[in-house]
Amino acid sequence: MGHQTTHFLGSHLSDSGVDFRVWAPFAESVSVLINTDFNWNESPLESEENGYWSGSIDDVKAGKSYKYRIHTRDGQTIERNDPRARQLTVSDNGDSVVVDPGYDWEDTVPPVIPKEKQIMYELHIGTFNRPDAATIGTFYTAIEKIDYLQSLGVNTIELMPVTSMATSNGWGYAPNHIFSVENTYGGRRGLLDFVKACHKKGISVVLDVVYNHFSNQTELWQFDGWSENGRGGIYFYNDERGDTPWGGRPDYGRPEVRQFILDNVTMWLTEYHIDGLRIDSTIYMRNSKGSDGGNDTEIPDAWSLLQDMAKLAHKIYPHVLMIAEDNSGNEYITKSISEGGAGYDAQWGLGFPYTLRSMLNIGGSQPDDSLAKELTHNFNGQGFQKVIFSDSHDTAANGSVRINEAATPGNAGSVFARQFGLLANAIMLTAPGIPMLLQGEEFMQEGNFNDWQMLDWAKTKQFAGIVLAHQHLIGLRLDAYGNTTGLTGPSINVFHQDNENRVIAYHRWLNGGVHDDVIVIANFNDQRFKSYELVLPIAGTWQVRFNSSWKGYSPDFNETKPSTVTTDSSNRINIELADYNIVILSQD
User: Fold this and answer.
1) Which of 53, 63, 116, 525 has its CB 3.0 to 4.6 Å from that of 45, i.e. a possible disulfide?
2) pLDDT in tens, 177-232
3) Distance, CA of 458 to CA of 82 (rounded, Å)
4) What is the mean pLDDT of residues 46-56?
5) Are 295 and 399 within one domain?
6) How far is residue 376's CA from residue 364's CA, in Å, rounded to a whole number?
7) Higher pLDDT, 59 or 23
8) DSSP states of 52-66 as a string?
9) Has residue 362 got a pLDDT over 70?
10) Are the C-beta atoms of 70 and 80 separated by less than 8 Å?
């Protein structure tokens, strides 16, 4: 055994071997087991008298697997993986692996994309690009599709969780080891290669992370043998605050557990060059009953930890995008820390997909002003503090289906499903907020979202026109054609709402003026209007920049052909609208 080390946790390569350090405050003794040619060599660690155990072992190299052997105060002997292991041999019952932290980024610079120019794409590595129905997707099969995403206009990928997970598959929201990357996806090296490949194409990567619970199957559970009330031990609350529907809630008040989570944030941003984090279900961090809770079930330690996470992330990388999934609509999530907020850059706009679904008129629901409210709703007067989507892994699952499947169940590629899917995504891509597509929705992927069904990439050919429509919409959103600057602005005015005919129209602008002011007119009716009259907020001649009924998007669409409209002395226009149609106008 060599010198004691006190500045890190986990296993770290040194000049002579590997340094080990672990937190196990209730252990009687701790040793490290090193796998040497099918035998385990045991070396005791020294107590630092502060709950930590450390030591260094010579002649151990990267790639060696190891575990901790813990002798508990009640005479038990338990073996545990390193909570900070950067890699496991396998996700279930595997061993920790010593990794070489070196990686050649080839001078790749992360792209800096302002919020108003972000186009997000939610991606699940296991199903995004599976080689076949029997083979799980990996970071490397996903890399094969980066050119496709770039051509679509996507510039930010939101990765569903990739940490080691129970049974090596799933959505990733039941984390076993939050410092280790899932092996079946390609492990640590695979994620590094994926991020580098994205950055080379100007695409940033936002990663889903889960801190609201740790799986009860995790080796963190009763890590060093100690617990109270039959609960989770040192990493968890050992009272009712530890209960969540999915596993034990971490003890956010314990300094070592806070550091565990903060160091995890640091790892993603520094070691993997991740550009942002989406924190899963922050409402279940800060309230023991989640959205059903009240003031009496709040967890103040979680709020201060959320603030510390946002502060740390912005300190490490000023351009970081920190997103909270809170589902409370609480604007303090995205208020600055100096004002008492949590300091996040954006939060998921969970009302948006449900409002769009209500416009499907499924079950005879009547149109109301909910879409207008959703379009104009913001946090703290800021248009880009929310991520908006017509579908996500949540809305397209959990007993529900993708929005095009909901439109015509069993026939998710029908004319109506295409019309409505395009209408929904055109609303999303012309509304204030950070728009996000769910993988496959741009080519009419059917069914629900799950962790096994491979995306049907043949549909990109079958529905090439729908993919083209999304390219055009994203181009307009980013002002790629130089005539829709207003879509990058935060301002919106819903100036026309006709509930009887299910038509809504809104004005979007940055500074206003030619090539800036944008008018969006959406018909959620199955009726065509030969001449629909409405009063525009700005006079003049308007050019049609996008018409979702164009036969170039689908030969069986019932196309209308307005190319320009001009207001009369009362600012009125008359425009032909197809059924389930959206048109986007701006001025030259």
Assistant:
1) 53
2) 999 999 999 999 999 999 999 999 999 999 999 999 998 788 999 999 999 999 99
3) 43
4) 96
5) yes
6) 25
7) 23
8) EEEEEEET--TT-EE
9) no
10) yes
What is the Cα–Cα distance from 441 to 391, expressed in whole angstroms?
A: 8
Supply the pLDDT for residue 222: 96
Looking at residue 382, which CATH number applies to its domain?
A: 3.20.20.80
Domain that holds residue 309: 115-217+254-477
Rounded Cα distance, 288 and 303, in Å: 12
- Distance separating alpha carbons of residues 489 and 555, to the nearest angstrom: 33
Q: Residue 353 — φ and ψ, nearest 5°?
A: -65, -35
Any alpha helices (H) in 22-173, and if so which ranges?
125-128, 139-143, 146-152
- Looking at the fold, whether 371 and 454 belong to one and the same domain comes out as yes
Do 86 and 145 fall into the same domain?
no
Among residues 57, 143, 62, which one has the least CA distance to residue 102?
62
Model confidence at 363: pLDDT above 70: no
Is 131 within a domain?
Answer: yes
Q: Which two tokens stand for residue 26?
A: 């209730």
- Number of domains comprising the chain: 3
Phi-psi region of 10 (alpha: psi -120 to 50; beta: other; left: phi over 0): left
Mean pLDDT in residue range 54-64: 94
The reply to whether 401 and 337 lie within a common domain is yes
Choosing from 62, 97, 132, the residue where a domain stops is: 97
pTM (two decimals): 0.96
pLDDT in tens, 413-454: 999 999 999 999 999 999 999 999 999 999 999 999 999 999
| Pair of tokens at residue 286 | 């800060």
Q: What is the largest CA-CA distance in the chain?
A: 90
| Residue 238 within a domain | no
Cross-strand bridge partners of residue 18: 13, 57
What type of residue sits at position 122?
Answer: E
Q: In 272-289, which positions are buried (b, 16+ CB within 10 angstroms) versus exposed (e)? A: bbbbbbbbbbbbbbbbbe
Residue 280, pLDDT score = 96
Two structure tokens written together for 318: 């000023």
Exposure string for 221-245, b = 16+ CB within 10 A, e = fewer = bbbbbbbeeebbbbbbbbeebbebe
At 72, list the tokens: 């508990």
99 contact partners, CB below 8 Å, separation of at least 6: 62, 86, 87, 188
Q: Distance (Å, rounded) from C-alpha 191 to C-alpha 209?
A: 14
6 pLDDT higher than 50: no
pLDDT of residue 64: 95
- Of the candidates 425, 459, 477, which is a domain's last residue? 477
Pair 190, 47 in one domain: no
* CA-wise closest residue to 32 among 2, 15, 178: 2
SS3 320: coil
**Average pLDDT over the chain, rounded to an integer:** 94
pLDDT single digits (tens) 289-330: 998 999 999 999 999 999 999 999 999 999 999 999 998 889
CATH at residue 517: 2.60.40.1180
Tokens of 400: 């529900």
Is residue 280 one of the residues assigned to a domain? yes
